[in-house]
Amino acid sequence: MKQIFFLLCIFSVQQTQAQSYKKIHDNALVVDTHNDILMKTADLPGIVIDQDLSGKTLSDLARWKKGGLDVQLFSVFCDGDAKNPYGYANREMDTLDAVAARNPDKIIKVANYAQLMKSVKQHKIAAMFGVEGGHMIENDLNKLEAMYNRGVRYLTLTHNISPDWATSAADETNPNPVIGKGLNSEGKKGLTDFGKQVVQKMNQLGMLVDVSHVGDQTFWDVIKYSTKPIIASHSSVYTLVHHRRNLKDDQIKAIAKNGGVIQINFNPGFIDSTFDKKEAAFLQEHAAENDSLMKAGMADFYALNYLYQKYATEANSMRPPLSMVIDHIDYVVKLVGVDYVGLGSDFDGTNLTPQQLDDVTDYPLITKALVERGYNEKDIDKILGGNFLRVLKANEKHL
């Protein structure tokens, strides 16, 4: 009888916790600062965001709503060596504009904090753009401003390939740096004079400066020259995983001092220190097939995605636990406080996700994990979106 009573008590506690995290998640304003679905709409046939894309992508309009998402910043991306990148960026933005026009009761593009909050109160997804790579402004401040006018609210200064005026993490770590690969057009690492003008112009516009992907020197130049709080839209913690894309402790502290926010990336390679070796072994095992796919014209990102889907059992065994995402959140909180961390999933920009985070419907499981770690509702609200909204508002001041 005592055993039955004990089991009933455990069941009751579990039910209470389940109700608690669901209520917290429903009441919170949930923001994701980096989703790459627009890249897939441009690259792949039949990817239309307001259709059911289950089994094809990690995101679509209905699934965002199911996951309790309130605000999505859509990554606008093309490779650093793409021709006419500004035009390409605008075509991606056209895609989202069309979706919003067809679904005014479900999603709306917003320009500022006030419009965002109005949209959320109307139970619509508030949409903004984040351009992933400064090469897309084509060294033209007028194009930067035109992007802002289209709804771009952050610019990731570099992707892996550097623009002329800022050096990326990929290029800064090049052992044999030369101009255009490791060094900027002035023959140095970091921001050129024009790069400083870009940061200044973004501050004036109220466009957030994003330091995900940038090299260390570019990062410290941004800290020196930005007059507004900055973001890392999709980065994790270097101390936990020594990846060039992750932030070192002194950088995390600098972002906190600046009043900015670090949006934790779910990409397994950024949160699990063992993942890169596992992925390399997987690629070695399927090297012949991978080479064949790329010789047939498939980009390496999509070739790997094809292989992961084909060999799903192998792929699933490589996925890190959800707890590792929370570990990175925990680390930032313990280092600088709960006011400087949020979520930048990289959904649809990564081929594998952590266990349990199968797609965008699983955001509530992050809330559940935070509850289980002992976070209270106020702090969870900050992590899920409040911290980013604070930075957005700070960038809008004095406009």
Index terms:
single chain, six-stranded parallel sheet, 18 helices, 50% helix
Secondary-structure element order, N to C:
HEHHEHEHEHEHEEHEHEHEHHHHHHEHH
Structural class: alpha/beta
**Straight-line N-to-C gap:** 68 Å
> Tally of extended strands?
11
Could you tell me the radius of gyration in angstroms?
A: 21 Å
Helicity level: 40-55%
Largest sheet: 6 strands, parallel
Mean pLDDT: 94
Overview of the molecule:
This protein is α/β, with parallel strands linked by helices and 399 residues long. It folds into two domains: 319 residues, Metal-dependent hydrolases (TIM Barrel); 45 residues, no CATH class. The protein contains 18 helices and eleven strands. Strands 1, 2, 3, 4, 5 and 8 form a six-stranded parallel β-sheet that branches. Strands 9-10-11 form a three-stranded parallel β-sheet. A two-stranded parallel sheet has the order 6-7. Strand 9, helix 10 and strand 10 form a beta-alpha-beta unit. About 3% of the residues have low confidence.
Please render the helix and strand layout as text.
Blueprint: H1 2-27, E1 31-35, H2 37-43, H3 61-66, E2 71-76, H4 85-102, E3 107-109, H5 113-121, E4 125-132, H6 141-149, E5 152-156, H7 169-172, E6 178-179, E7 182-183, H8 193-205, E8 208-210, H9 216-225, E9 231-232, H10 249-258, E10 261-264, H11 268-271, H12 275-285, H13 287-295, H14 300-310, H15 312-318, H16 323-336, E11 341-343, H17 363-372, H18 377-396
Parallel strand pairs: 1-2, 2-4, 3-4, 4-5, 5-8, 6-7, 9-10, 10-11
Helix pairs in contact: 1-17, 2-4, 6-8, 13-14, 14-15
